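Field reference: "sequence" (input) and "structure" (output). Example, Aminotransferase class I/II-fold pyridoxal phosphate-dependent enzyme:
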Amino acid sequence: MNQKKRIFLSPPHMSGEEERYIAEAFRSNWIAPLGPLVNTFEEKMADYVGTAGAAAVSSGTAAIHLALKLLGVTKGDTVFCSAFTFVASANPVLYEQARPVFIDSERCTWNMSPQALERALDEAERNRNLPKAVIVVNLYGQSAKMDEILAICDKYAVPVIEDAAESLGSVYKGKKSGAFGRFGIYSFNGNKIITTSGGGMLVSDDEDALKKARFLATQAREPAVHYQHEKAGYNYRMSNVLAGIGVAQLAVLDDRVNARRSVFQRYQEALSEIDGIEFMPERGMSNRWLTTLTFDPKKIKTTPGEIIEALANENIEARPLWKPLHRQPLFQDAVFYPHHEDDSVCDDLFAKGLCLPSGSSLTEEEQDRINEVLVRRIQYQ
Ligand SMILES: *Cc1c(COP(=O)(O)O)cnc(C)c1O
């Protein structure tokens, strides 16, 4: 039996200050719903990412859903989505009985291919079926080419929702990741770069829209003592206790970014000599939420699956890259636009890549343990 301490992919990393805010929430009895720490967390997030405002909600998924509602997405509409992502990016499209259309990645960011997007929009315009929105993901911390994507979407007057659940703290073209689209969303799920145990944030420069988001997120309750309701709403707001955790976590976000980037750098130093390994490229400054890499099957005989298994035998958690959404049974009928007609970049990445443990609390000794297994597995294949 293996007694070695478990190394997780991306565990929560508390600063120690969180309990002070939790105690404050308890002392003031602002437990839930809402309360002053929610306002503080929203203001600090908007300040940090550089948007006019922010609305704290119960999850990143809820933030995406609210953004779709605010853009008027309804039954039968189409929404273009990144294909290479976690299912939560596209699930809210299904909540509205709208239809996701998946857009492939490009090699230099692993994110939405501007070429494939343009092809899809051009075809949609000719069919008089432009999407109501485009949801662009910034995978593993790396921003998509937001400048190019926004320019293309502007041409067709289609608004962009930026799924920055994994890229909080990253910078692209001098701007914080998540601040590019009409709406940006972040997640504070347990595995993200900072966590409130569970939670999310919707950001925008459109403060009226954020006001509507807060309204929809609190059961669409009209201002009347007798609880007047004219629309169907949701129970999506963040509690004051969790917002307190968020305020303390946000204060150490830049440290967490630096730590994850150091983890990445150490992997790179330990493994870059191996012919056939390529790390996820970087454009701008990525928070390196997860260190991800691909193995060239012509040069490396072992597979990502075998490496994941070898690591698991040493009580180390590693994962494949996200399985493209158009490959999920859930979306089997969805249309997919590859980068080039016969070159699906995300399918290729999925076949060749994996994610390594990348927590900001990962020690150098733990990382040596991981590298030892990797090098052994690759060299004595
Ligand atoms: C985590 C994640 C989400 C969902 O956030 P939750 O807070 O877990 O709902 C959405 N998109 C991406 C890309 C994610 O990684």
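The pocket of pyridoxal-5'-phosphate is lined by residues 59-61, 85-86, 88-89, 137, 163, 165-166, 187, 189, 200 (CB under 6 Å).
The chain has two domains: 18-252, 254-379.
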